[in-house]
């Protein structure tokens, strides 16, 4: 019997064993909807009730911040907010509008240990950010302070970055940035207060300084709200010598966009 035949049989046996293991696991732990507890056909899916609640972002959108336009103003158009005060980053993209439909999904992933959702969320983000990913050299997540990471046990931005990296075929540097001090929750604060709190909170990891120079970096986070956090990280990376910094998030808050 030739080596090729043996190799082929070994591959088929391994694939059959993998399928058996998946089916056995599904029997023991049936896959659940990414948003709720409803059972679904396979992992990484949404149930029929939750799927229509999500608002995916697509063109037309602001060429800078990625906010969707109600009417198409043409390629390269930017919204009034970006024209009045251009962001530090080059472009920002997000897969979903952050609202009552996507909030349960986002919070379950962020705080509810639904880390099984990361592969599907990463694929959504890769599709939404295809224009920024095609020119990128590497991905870097927004870091958590070590005390918060200890309590949560995982950095949701790092999980998303790893999933996007696999989907897009790009390297991920999980600790490219470090959070030098812990900041309080920014959820209920306005733009100015957020910027004050995150000012000086981030730094480049000393061991990765050379990777930043002339690199085109995509910064990954879970939710884009006022943009204070990603702008603070962007400025640190640009000061470190990055050629370009774009932003990719799972969701973003919505405001009316005018061209």
Short description:
The protein has 259 residues and is an alpha/beta fold.
Describe the structure.
This protein is α/β, with parallel strands linked by helices and 259 residues long. It has one domain: Rossmann fold (3-Layer(aba) Sandwich). Helices cover 38% and strands 13% of the residues. The protein is built from 10 helices and 6 strands. It has helices at 3-28, 80-84, 103-111, 118-128, 130-133, 146-152, 156-168, 191-198, 209-212, 228-239, and strands at residues 92-97, 138-141, 177-179, 202-204, 216-224, 244-252. It has a 4-stranded parallel β-sheet with strand order 1-6-5-2. A two-stranded antiparallel sheet has the order 3-4. The model has no long low-confidence stretch (mean pLDDT 86).
Label this structure with key terms.
single chain; alpha/beta; Rossmann fold; two-stranded antiparallel sheet; 6 strands
Task: Give the count of helical stretches.
Answer: 10
How many strand segments?
6
CATH architecture: 3-Layer(aba) Sandwich
Profile the largest sheet.
4 strands, parallel
Helix content: 25-40%
The overall average pLDDT, rounded, is 86
> Helices and strands: which structural class?
alpha/beta
Detail the poorly predicted runs: none
How do the strands line up in the largest sheet? 1-6-5-2
Order of helices and strands: HHEHHHEHHEHEHEHE
Radius of gyration: 20 Å
Q: Separation of termini? A: 69 Å
Q: How many discrete domains? A: 1
Question: CATH class, please?
Answer: Alpha Beta
Which word captures the global form?
globular
User: Any idea of the CATH topology?
Assistant: Rossmann fold
Strand content: 5-15%
């Amino acid at each position: 019997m030739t080596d090729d035949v043996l190799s082929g049989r070994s591959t088929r046996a391994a694939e059959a064993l993998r399928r058996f293991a998946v089916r056995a696991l599904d029997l023991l732990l049936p896959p659940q909807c990414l948003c709720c507890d409803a059972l679904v056909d396979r992992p990484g899916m949404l149930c029929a009730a939750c799927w229509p609640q999500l608002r995916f972002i697509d063109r037309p959108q602001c060429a800078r911040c990625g906010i969707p336009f109600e009417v198409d103003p043409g390629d390269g158009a930017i919204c009034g907010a970006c024209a009045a005060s251009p962001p530090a980053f080059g472009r920002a993209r997000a897969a979903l509008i952050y609202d009552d439909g996507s909030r349960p999904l986002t919070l379950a992933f962020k705080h509810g240990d639904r880390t099984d959702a990361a592969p599907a969320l990463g694929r959504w983000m890769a599709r939404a950010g295809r224009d920024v990913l095609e020119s990128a050299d590497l991905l870097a997540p927004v870091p958590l302070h070590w005390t918060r990471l200890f309590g949560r046990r995982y950095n949701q931005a790092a999980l998303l970055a790893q999933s996007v990296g696999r989907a897009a075929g790009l390297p991920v540097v999980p600790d490219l940035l470090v959070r030098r001090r812990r900041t309080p929750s920014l959820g209920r604060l306005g733009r100015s207060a957020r910027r004050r709190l995150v000012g000086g909170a981030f730094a480049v990891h000393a061991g990765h300084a050379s990777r930043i120079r002339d690199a085109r970096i995509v910064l990954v986070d879970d939710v884009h709200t006022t943009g204070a956090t990603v702008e603070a990280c962007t400025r640190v990376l640009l000061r470190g010598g990055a050629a370009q910094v774009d932003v990719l998030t799972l969701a973003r808050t919505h405001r009316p966009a005018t061209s």
